[in-house]
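=== Structural record ===
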Amino acid sequence: MPTNDTLIRGLCPQPRQVQLTEGQFPLPSVLTWTGPDEVINAVTILTERLAPALDVVRATSHTDDVSLTVIVDPALEAEGYRIDIDAQVRITAGSPSGARWAVQTLLQLLTPWVYGPGPLALKHLCLPKGVIVDAPHHSWRGAHLDVSRHFMPTSFIMNFLDVLAVHKLNRLHLHLTDDQGWRLPVPGWPRLTTVGAWRPGTVRGHQPPPDDNGCDDVAEHDHIPHGGAYTVDQLRAIDERAQLLGITVVPEVDLPGHTESVVAAYPELGCGAPISHPRTAFGVSEHHINLTDAALGFCRDVLDAVMEIFPNSPIHIGGDECPGKEWFGHKPTRTRLAELGITTPHQAQAWFERQICGHVVAAGRQVIAWDEVLEAGAPEEVTVMVWRDADDIARAAAAGHDVIAAPARHTYLDHGMETGPQAPVTIDAPMTMNDVAGLHDVLAAVNSPHLLGGQFQLWTEYLCTPAQVEDAAFPRGTSIAEQLWTGNPARPLSELEAQTRRLTAMGVNWHR
């Protein structure tokens, strides 16, 4: 059995208070529990992890010998919890989410192999006696996953959710659409997934600079078709698993830019550029949807479909990297903009965002957009996700917007960890553990209740497989998760060894 000091250092994220004493609580072969129905999901997580060694059974009467008691006390912080371990285990949580995080902490007090498929030796499953009190510093603790540039199978996303939960991350930002592929079924628009989901190839190596005509394609791609789309049932299953784990899926449909896949499927929604398939290159495209009534109707249909599939989620509408020059060369759009007195692309996008945001807000949903929406004045109800300039976090908060920190300099984990002839091709490199540790200073510099928290990003232009995504994500994402939970500076990699052992047990291809 590891020493108490070793167990404490191995907890990740580090709890606020840990006091372990002498003695142990051996887990019984049948672990009985009692608590309200609202904590069943938390106990389900415990049951899944301990199944190779023992059974977890709900007590049927007050006379049962109860090993675990779970209580919800709203007087605690919403995601906070307290664990008391003595003759039994007692969890007091501020909410069902707090109970879930308490279970994750309990599991971390056991061997890392509880996170694997088993088998487990019951005689070695002992909890140390003591008290743990904890709660998160930030309410938004997220991971972004781009499944548009390279399609990721449903099974991987399910496993990824489990890994996020071990880190007490509570948001999965799922980037579902982009120039290179559309992954979301929308009723009435079947070509989105039969045409818009498939590209004939992918650029070889690094993205070449665009030519003077804003060329959005490359002739010298690899000629290997790539694509895929999720079914409604698959997306609902992802959402259901996320909810069980205490994670909210945040679906993103990028509008009005990053929509070449849409124009390939439905050319009438574009501005006249001859696009016959999703983009084979990366970078910023000059080509996107127009601003006609038909295009706006399409956008509303898409948002309605997303809101139906993810009934409890904020909706991310993108809003980034849309040059907008095409609008002024597209006669129907140009006529509309002239009638509105709009003369610049920023003004045109601001008008578009007001139409789209209004639709989402009218449905009673939180709406999120990238920080480009600040350039011509974002609707006041928009939560701004800042990726470009960290100074925009404070700027957006001062303007009254709720803000999520996603600064590229510290959170874009698609940037490689090293350079050199043996390093993989990535957008940029290096981004080290010291670089991601800089997120703490960015967050600490913003003193505003509008700062919700932050997240790390995994764009998949050059992350082609689940294994490559995992290699990019961890342990750098482990450091970010702990910074978001604790509000403290990052710990050195040497102090995250226990967490990397858990990742190994889960079969995660973390970067050694």
